[in-house]
Design goal:
Helix content of chain B: 25-40%
Distance between the termini of chain A: 21 Å
Helix content of chain A: 25-40%
Order of helices and strands of chain B: EEHEEHEHHHHEHEHEHEHEHEHHEEEEE
Radius of gyration of chain B: 21 Å
Shape of chain A: globular
Order of helices and strands of chain A: EEHEEHHHEHHHHEHEHEHEHEHEHHEE
Oligomer: heterodimer
Structural class of chain B: alpha/beta
Largest sheet of chain B: 12 strands, mixed
Number of strands of chain A: 13
Distance between the termini of chain B: 18 Å
Strand content of chain A: 15-25%
Shape of chain B: globular
Number of helices of chain B: 13
Number of helices of chain A: 15
Radius of gyration of chain A: 21 Å
């Protein structure tokens, strides 16, 4: 049986640039970047743009039960449902499938630091850890931390209630979320799905993990392609959600597509061998079916090494590609990296243009003309690689 | 002859290998022996000090050790042990070369307290803040903590060890995670993407903070003495669940592929279903509608009628709310047939293995089919009159079992059910 065509019919974006598609299109056109070198200095971050969450999360009680990453995600999910014209449509929402890519939520840094300081000063016998945790942790904080509770909140606030699956595993989780959603819709296992992720970069607790591996960008912001002498990723903030559905389903309800999501492929390179990422991308590329080597490509390149250098090696083999790096503009949004790329590809196709390059090194080149094919590329800072082909609907 | 398909024309998905670790022991043989004898694996926790804790028992797996200890490393080790057993039984592929993808149910990962404190002791400043702390994190001394505590780390390691193909998927649907891992495997085989999948679910989360967090949500039993009496599903005096550790691994294959290589078929995953509850973050809708819908979707997916289910392996957490809601949902779907269905909860003996539970209980369901014997729900001394299930109380029961429904209902509105049968319908 032939696979069904998968359309992107809804796009929701909230990021360090602002909210909504118009604001993003305008900011990308103006090459605006909202990076902050001071707030968590020496670490460079991209904090979320000021937003009133009430517009998508009307109940204050719901907002109180969430931490920022969940608010960002629930908000962006609402924008995507609005954009697809299914917000409040009980019949569709009650059978809509949901695949979320998520990490963990905010910790209570004050409680953690108090415990760590007490221990460092020899004032924390092992037994006292329990007491501190029992007395000082907010009971509901657990729910703001659990990976699957972003999906839980989207179900509660927006009523997306068909199925709910949360994938974990940094960047790769969002590539797989898109891959599984497309496979299920293509095979007729699902008609319509909400796919996305959220990330809040304004978090000292989150920087811990990436500091262990010395991945975080310090001191000075630079474009992703200009970080050779000071590699690393600037943690970004974004909620990026897509409504994907079969062409039949979209047409039956009169929904207009932003673009077609033709293919998503993923791999797990054995990175202990140098060059493994380049090789993995070379293997994935022909699986996409890109018909024109002068196509456009939106990458989530992080700026962390050696992954970015190996990706650059691959890109160098396709000199005709017009490349855009989301990392330069948005920072590295981790689990949201891939859906952000998909969202910008769909947006560009729907606006009939690729947004301008923003790169002093010249790797990114200007490209005129309406895009028909945009490749979205995701390479994890430590593991996982993937690509998608987003096309204009014929 | 054309390849056998189910009644919807999809490839039939069979189980050819199973491996299990719980607080009752390692391996199917020991687990089944102790489970069917009604033994409990719940003990007073010895892994860390219990001062100030309201709940002091758990189904910890103490006979498996990892050094240095972390819940993440223990989860990984439990998964390895279960997977080795499943692969050996299945005989599929060759060592380190599994011919299909990996779906892994695993608890969310974060840097744990022993490691946090190890770094804290190295911070040179007194009364440090997060920036001072981060400076000590970096510089290469603690690189191994990044490798250990990325969310993808357990799947990466398992994929390398067992040679699964493609991008491994780590997932969390709370207490339904194990069932979701199986469901993803079933769907991949039905799509014809692969002939085989490795579905693993693991949880090694008995650590102070996890115990505290569930305790603060008032989800845990506090009847600490005796520990093996704490988990009392369907009893009037039940007061919460008991945290536990364990892992289950299943090799799923298309019926064709399994037959072609002469594999022994252990059972069939006839149907899977899930439906989200949007009522509340930790509580189920009082009318049970989402759970009812989940059970109905699962029957529909299997193409079966309620009357064809002859045993329910219940979610049966022993929390006041879950067990009542599970009865209401079951009664709504099965009607008059409800009283004919023997129901049991493995959690009475192994505790709630959380992320692993869906897979652990699927394996127990398949062993129930194999032995035609239903393991008991122990500690069933004071039946709750509001839950008039035919509970297999305290003693195992021999019964003709052809189709088992295994339920998983979790935090965040996660409901998932599976139907397992002995032979293709």
């Amino acid at each position: 049986m032939a696979e069904k065509e998968v359309w992107i019919t809804g796009v929701g974006l909230l990021s360090s640039l602002g909210e909504g598609l118009d604001a993003h299109w305008e900011a990308l056109g103006a090459k605006r970047v909202n990076a902050d070198e001071k707030r968590l200095a020496p670490y460079v971050i991209h904090p979320i743009a000021p937003v009133s969450f009430d517009a998508q999360i009307p109940k204050k009680g719901d907002q109180r039960q969430m931490e920022t990453w969940q608010r960002i995600g629930t908000y962006a999910a609402g924008l995507a449902l609005d954009s697809a014209g299914v917000k409040g449509n009980q019949e569709i929402l009650s059978r809509m499938d949901m695949i979320i890519a998520a990490g963990g939520g905010e910790r209570d840094l004050n409680v953690d630091l108090a415990i760590m300081n007490a221990d460092a000063q020899g004032k924390l016998p092992p037994a006292v850890l329990n007491e501190k945790l029992m007395n000082e942790l907010r009971p509901t904080l657990f729910l703001a931390q659990l990976s699957n509770l972003l999906a839980g909140n989207i179900a509660i606030v927006h009523g997306v209630c068909g199925t709910s699956r949360t994938f974990m595993g940094e960047e790769a989780s969002s590539i797989d979320a898109a891959r599984i959603a497309v496979a299920r819709i293509g095979a007729g296992q699902s008609d319509i799905a909400l796919v996305g992720a959220a990330h809040n970069g304004d978090r000292g607790d989150l920087l811990m993990l990436y500091s262990f591996g010395d991945f975080a960008l310090k001191d000075q912001y630079a474009s992703v392609w200009a970080r050779r002498n000071n590699p690393g990723f600037a943690i970004g903030s974004a909620g990026a959600f897509l409504v994907m559905e079969s062409r039949e389903h979209a047409e039956a309800r009169g929904a207009k597509p932003y673009a077609k999501l033709t293919k998503v492929v993923a791999d797990l390179a054995k990175r202990k061998q140098p060059g493994a990422v380049t090789k993995s991308l070379q293997t994935l590329w022909p699986q996409l079916g890109v018909s024109n080597d002068n196509a456009m490509l939106i990458t989530g390149a992080t700026g962390a090494e050696p992954a970015t250098a190996e990706e650059r090696e691959f890109l160098g083999q396709h000199p005709g590609l017009a490349v855009r790096a989301t990392g330069t503009t948005f920072g590295h949004t981790m689990e949201a990296q891939f859906p952000l790329g998909l969202a910008l590809a769909a947006l560009s196709i729907s606006r009939g243009a690729l947004y301008p390059a923003n790169d002093p090194t010249g790797l990114e080149v200007e490209k005129t003309g309406a895009p028909t094919q945009i490749v979205v590329l995701g390479v994890g800072h430590w593991q996982g690689e993937g690509m998608a082909l987003v096309e204009a609907v014929k | 002859m054309t390849a056998p398909r189910d009644k919807f024309g999809r490839p039939i998905v069979v189980v050819t290998g199973m491996g299990i670790v719980t607080s009752l022991g390692g391996g199917k043989t020991d687990n089944w022996k102790r489970l069917s004898a009604g033994e409990s694996g719940i003990k007073t926790v010895t892994r860390f000090p219990l001062d100030s804790l309201k709940t002091t028992m758990a189904g910890a797996v103490d006979f498996v050790t990892v050094d240095p200890f972390s819940s993440t490393s223990l989860s990984q080790r439990l998964a390895e042990i279960a997977t080795e057993e499943a692969l050996e039984q299945s005989g599929i592929g060759t060592k380190g070369d599994f011919p299909g993808p990996l779906f892994l149910a695993v608890a969310p990962i974060e840097t744990e307290w022993p490691q946090r404190l190890e770094v804290a002791r190295e911070v040179p400043t007194k009364d440090f803040g997060i920036i001072d702390y981060l400076a000590t994190c970096s510089g290469g001394k603690f690189t191994h903590f990044h490798r250990r505590f990325t969310f993808g780390s357990v799947a990466l390691s398992l994929a390398e060890t067992f040679g699964t193909k493609g991008s491994p998927i780590s997932l969390s649907t709370a207490c339904a995670s194990g069932a979701t891992a199986i469901q993803l495997g079933v769907e991949a085989i039905r799509r014809g993407e692969t002939d085989a999948t490795l579905c693993i679910a693991t949880d090694g989360s008995v650590n102070p903070e996890a115990l505290v967090r569930f305790s603060l949500l008032s989800a845990l039993s506090t009847q600490n003495d005796p520990p093996q009496g704490a988990s009392k599903p369907f009893s009037k005096n039940r007061d919460g669940f008991v945290m536990a550790e364990g892992a289950g691994a299943l090799v799923l294959e298309s019926y064709d592929a399994a037959m072609a290589r002469g594999a022994r078929i252990l059972g069939v995953v006839a149907g899977c279903g899930e439906l989200t509850d949007s009522f509340h973050r930790t509580r189920s809708a009082p009318d049970g509608k989402p759970a009812i819908g989940c059970v109905r979707k699962t029957l529909a997916d299997a193409g079966m009628e309620p009357e064809q289910i002859d045993h329910i392996n219940a979610h049966g957490t022993s929390t006041p709310e879950n067990d009542k809601m599970e009865y209401l949902a079951t009664a709504a779907v099965f009607g008059e047939h409800t009283k004919n269905i023997p129901v049991s909860s493995n959690k009475s003996m192994v505790g709630h293995t959380i992320s692993a539970a869906g897979a652990v209980e699927a394996i127990f369901s398949l062993l129930t089919l194999e032995h035609q014997r239903i393991p008991p729900t122990i500690n069933y001394e004071v039946p709750d009159p509001a839950i008039p299930f035919d509970v297999v109380g305290n003693k195992a029961r021999d019964a003709k079992v052809t189709a088992v429904m295994s339920n998983s209902f979790g935090f965040g509105g996660q409901n998932a059910s599976l139907i397992l049968t002995r032979e293709p319908a």
